[in-house]
């Protein structure tokens, strides 16, 4: 089975922030019934979003509906399901080849990229990282047991990634043998083009939401 990379953008709007605050208010007041009701009502709206269901294993044949029940609901899954209707698909790192996300992870270090930069480009951070600034409590939000809530890369970082990819495309290495070999491989496989295409549609207020499915 192919390993596919999925990517979406989601703008931080007043509606986005109200939704997140409402979800966290229910969670922090231990009102699991309310949190579940909010999420389940939005889950039904995703029935026709095959792109969302495939990327986050939310289809009706999966376990997501069970994890949305009051006894199992987590703020991360509730947020994903509630916000997903506003996700806009963008080109993915699998656009030219299924393995291009793996090529980028393997060869960008030779081109000076840090592990954190690569992680933001390919995987993103747990959804709880996005939620945490909206929480009224200083307690860290823990990841739920339903782990397919996507990786989230914040707007400021997406701009930096786009600039780094553009520099890499426009100014390939000219000296270090390993770097030249890595650049040529990423260029010939169109992995760099895939990364640029994924980042290009993102605005300054967009989160980049990523997932990899098997």
UniProtKB/TrEMBL annotation:
Give the domain of life: Bacteria
Name-wise, this protein is Uncharacterized protein
Give the organism, scientific name. Answer: Rhizobium tropici
């Amino acid at each position: 089975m192919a390993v596919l990379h999925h990517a979406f953008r989601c703008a931080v709007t007043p509606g986005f922030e109200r939704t997140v605050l409402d979800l966290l208010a229910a969670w922090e007041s231990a009102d699991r019934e309310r949190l579940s009701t909010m999420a389940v009502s939005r889950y039904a709206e995703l029935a026709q979003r095959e792109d969302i269901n495939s990327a986050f294993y939310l289809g009706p044949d999966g376990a997501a509906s069970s994890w949305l029940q009051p006894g199992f609901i987590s703020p991360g899954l509730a947020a994903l399901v509630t916000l997903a209707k506003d996700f806009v698909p963008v080109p993915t790192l699998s656009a030219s080849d299924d393995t291009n996300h793996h090529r980028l992870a393997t060869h960008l270090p030779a081109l000076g990229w840090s592990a954190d930069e690569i992680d933001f480009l390919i995987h993103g951070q747990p959804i709880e990282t996005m939620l945490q600034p909206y929480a009224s409590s200083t307690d860290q939000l823990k990841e739920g047991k339903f782990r397919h809530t996507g990786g989230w890369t914040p707007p400021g970082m997406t701009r930096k990634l786009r600039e780094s990819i553009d520099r890499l495309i426009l100014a390939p290495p000219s000296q270090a043998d390993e770097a030249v070999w890595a650049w040529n491989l990423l260029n010939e496989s169109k992995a760099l083009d895939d990364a640029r295409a994924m980042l290009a549609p993102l605005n300054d207020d967009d989160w980049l939401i990523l997932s990899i499915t098997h």
